[in-house]
Amino acid sequence: MSGYPDHPSGHVSASAESGGTLRADAQRNRERILRAARDLVREPGELKLNAVAKACGIGQGTLYRHFPTREDLLVEVYRREVEDLVTAASRLLEAHRPLDALAAWFDRVAAYARVKRDVFAAVEAATWRDLAAHSLGPIGEAVELLLAAGRSDGSIRPDAEARDVIVLISWLSRLEEAEIDARGQRLLSILVDGLRTRA
């Protein structure tokens, strides 16, 4: 049985078949579970697995076959959020000029920050530290991809470094929900202006 080699909890999904593939119906259930959990993790109180199963219309047994524990599910919600954030960088660069792509990516960062804050508040400290360590590299690479494109076309200042941007955007996940909504976009807009090349 194949699983995720860097899964911080060490658990392997029981629904994985040989080669790490899932049957089509199992894959659909997995996606439904992850979408429901992502929505519910933002609700007040502890995420309940029975609430997730009810929200996506499956039995609890099906949910447990995919995610044996609550922490397994939360870890995968976060991993998927990081994956989506990272892949968004190249997609945005294909459709927009570099500075516009960076601004649009920052919009996606605000949504990521909400999920990160809620997941990290719900899992063990050792787990979130491991998650943070695993995600820093891919997110940094996505930032550098965007910055490099902007430096190349002259729209982003030549001294802009991915590490600086990571430090600045990391503060978003420390804000309360209302603050992310009220201040997050403004803070990111200020950051984009700070990265812009001055005439």
Features:
199 residues; mainly alpha; Arc Repressor Mutant, subunit A; elongated; disordered N terminus; transcription; DNA-binding
Structural description of this entry:
- This protein has helices at residues 24-40, 49-55, 60-66, 70-95, 98-122, 125-153, 162-169, 177-195.
- With 199 residues, the chain is mainly alpha-helical.
- α4 runs parallel beside α6.
- The chain is elongated, with a radius of gyration of 18 Å.
- Mean pLDDT is 85; it is low at 1-19.
Q: How does the overall form come out from the CA principal axes?
A: elongated
**What is the element string, with H for helices and E for strands?**
HHHHHHHH
Look at the helices and sheets and give the structural class: mainly alpha
Write down the overall mean pLDDT.
85
Number of helices, where a helix is a run of at least 4 consecutive DSSP H or I residues: 8
Number of domains: 2
What is the percentage of strand-forming residues? under 5%
Question: Share of helix among residues?
Answer: 55-70%
Can you tell me the residue ranges where pLDDT is under 50 for at least 5 consecutive residues? 1-19
Tell how many strands the DSSP assignment holds. Answer: 0
Kindly report the name of the CATH homologous superfamily of the largest domain.
Tetracycline Repressor, domain 2
